[in-house]
């Protein structure tokens, strides 16, 4: 039940992303090194709330959901940049644009690489 | 020498192996940007400053800082401060309670943050967390036994403006501070610019790669009081900044700063170590509820 509620929250956050952000294409889309870098960044910055395996936590929606994989890359980038401060999702604008795109590349990768040793 | 190097690597290895996640730190010591602590995370930091002092002993002052993300738009900090002066004494100099609020919930070209701090410090406080009014090097030459007699209850407010542009952060702070026992408002400023040494992350984990370092410059100083506003009899500093963010949540920072006029200390050396504990608030709540 909790997992479903968190997934719904994640989908709702994505819907709220500004329409113009959806037009942005990921400059790192399909880049294997970027996907690996994204995995590393997710483990470093996101796992404490979203879970080590990205399956969501008590306060944060899962990252390995269909909604995330199907979302426009620009929407995810917008959400990472702005966060949802009222809902507890911080803004990650302190990470350079390139790293936020690398995170998006990993989240939308159809075949994520294994964790680095 | 070899023993020292081994010791250093053991310390660095230990820091790198600490559990925890990490935000991304900007290297500023005095300037604030608009990035707040993640909700529920606690950052503990120790930030000493060594100063060359004319007319009295050099001193080492410092603050221990507990920074907690209350909400995505609200960060609270508590400080304990102290100092030790050569050929004088060592003493605790006071406490500070700080709150920062983001009034706008989204990123803009310029992002404002409102800052309010309540301070209870004595006259021997030398941390120079901010420089305001006619603060100068001469204020720190007074012996500790005399300076500590003065107890100051102060309120400090800041308007923080901060922007991110192509990997750079540019932050401007306007400071207004008032001793509640006096009438005069004192003003100051801080301006900083910083950038990570690499914008994109490497695919593999690394400690010494450029993505974990950021560098910058900050300039800060006093602007007089509302009765005598301006640069006359004020002090100003230029600090070079370098920060190293370890993946474990530990961040190390260093900043040599140089006085820009005769009222300023000639040299300040700041350094700091911080460690972030993500989800600290949840762990505390769980502990009090008795759940595993």
Which assembly state applies to the chains in this document?
Answer: heterodimer
Largest sheet of chain A: none
CA-based gyration radius of chain B: 20 Å
As a percent range, the share of strand residues of chain B is over 45%
Average pLDDT of chain B, to the nearest integer? 91
The percent range for strand residues of chain A is under 5%
Secondary structure tally, helices of chain A: 6
H/E element string of chain A?
Answer: HHHHHH
Largest sheet of chain B: 12 strands, antiparallel, barrel
What can you see in these coordinates?
The complex is a heterodimer of chains A (117) and B (292). The longest helix of chain A has 14 residues. Chain A is globular, with a radius of gyration of 13 Å. Chain A is 50% helix and 0% strand. Chain A is built from six helices and no strands. Chain A is an all-alpha fold and 117 residues long. By secondary structure, chain B is mainly beta. Helix content of chain B is 10%, strand content 49%. Chain B contains three helices and twelve strands. In chain B, strands 1-2-3-4-5-6-7-8-9-10-11-12 form a twelve-stranded antiparallel β-barrel. At the A-B interface, α2, α3 and α6 of A face loops of B.
Write the layout of secondary structure elements.
The complex is a heterodimer of chains A (117) and B (292).
Chain A: H1 2-15, H2 32-45, H3 47-50, H4 66-70, H5 73-82, H6 97-107
Helix pairs in contact in A: 2-6, 5-6
Chain B: H1 2-17, E1 42-51, E2 59-71, E3 74-85, E4 90-101, E5 111-122, H2 144-147, E6 151-165, E7 168-179, E8 185-196, E9 213-225, E10 236-245, E11 250-259, E12 267-277, H3 280-289
Antiparallel strand pairs in B: 1-2, 1-12, 2-3, 3-4, 4-5, 5-6, 6-7, 7-8, 8-9, 9-10, 10-11, 11-12
């Amino acid at each position: 039940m909790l997992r479903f509620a968190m997934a719904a929250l994640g989908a709702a956050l994505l819907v709220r992303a500004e329409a113009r952000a959806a037009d942005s294409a990921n400059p790192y889309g399909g880049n294997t090194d970027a996907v690996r870098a994204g995995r590393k960044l997710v483990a470093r910055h996101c796992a404490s709330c979203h879970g080590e395996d990205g399956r969501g936590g008590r306060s944060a929606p899962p990252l390995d959901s269909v909604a995330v994989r199907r979302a426009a890359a620009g929407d995810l980038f917008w959400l990472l940049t702005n966060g949802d401060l009222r809902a507890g999702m911080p803004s990650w604008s302190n990470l350079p644009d390139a790293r936020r795109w690398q995170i998006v590349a990993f989240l939308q990768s159809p075949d994520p690489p294994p964790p680095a040793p | 020498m070899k023993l020292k190097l081994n010791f250093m690597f053991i310390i660095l290895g230990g820091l790198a192996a600490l559990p925890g996640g990490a935000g991304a730190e900007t290297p500023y010591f005095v300037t604030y940007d608009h990035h707040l602590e993640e909700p529920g995370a606690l950052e503990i930091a120790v930030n000493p400053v060594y100063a060359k002092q004319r007319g009295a002993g050099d001193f080492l002052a410092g603050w221990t800082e507990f920074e907690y993300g209350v909400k995505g738009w609200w960060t609270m900090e508590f400080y304990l401060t102290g100092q030790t002066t050569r050929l004088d004494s060592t003493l605790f100099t006071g406490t500070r309670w700080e709150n920062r609020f983001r009034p706008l919930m989204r990123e803009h070209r310029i992002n404002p943050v409102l800052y309010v701090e309540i301070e209870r410090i004595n006259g021997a406080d030398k941390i120079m967390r901010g420089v305001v009014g006619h603060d100068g090097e001469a204020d720190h030459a007074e012996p500790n036994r005399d300076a500590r007699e003065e107890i100051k209850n102060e309120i400090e407010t800041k308007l923080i403006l901060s922007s991110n542009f192509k990997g750079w952060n540019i932050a401007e702070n306007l400071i207004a501070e008032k001793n509640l026992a006096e009438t005069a408002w004192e003003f100051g400023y801080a301006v900083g610019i910083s950038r990570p040494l690499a914008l994109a992350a490497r695919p593999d984990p690394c400690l010494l790669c450029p993505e974990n370092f950021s560098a910058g410059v900050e300039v800060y100083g006093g602007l007089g009081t509302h009765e005598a506003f301006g640069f006359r009899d004020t002090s100003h500093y230029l600090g070079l900044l370098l920060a190293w963010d370890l993946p474990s949540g530990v961040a190390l920072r260093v900043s040599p700063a140089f006085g820009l006029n005769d009222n300023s200390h000639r040299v300040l050396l700041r350094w700091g170590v911080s460690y972030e504990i993500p989800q600290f608030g949840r762990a505390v709540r769980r502990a009090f509820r008795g759940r595993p």
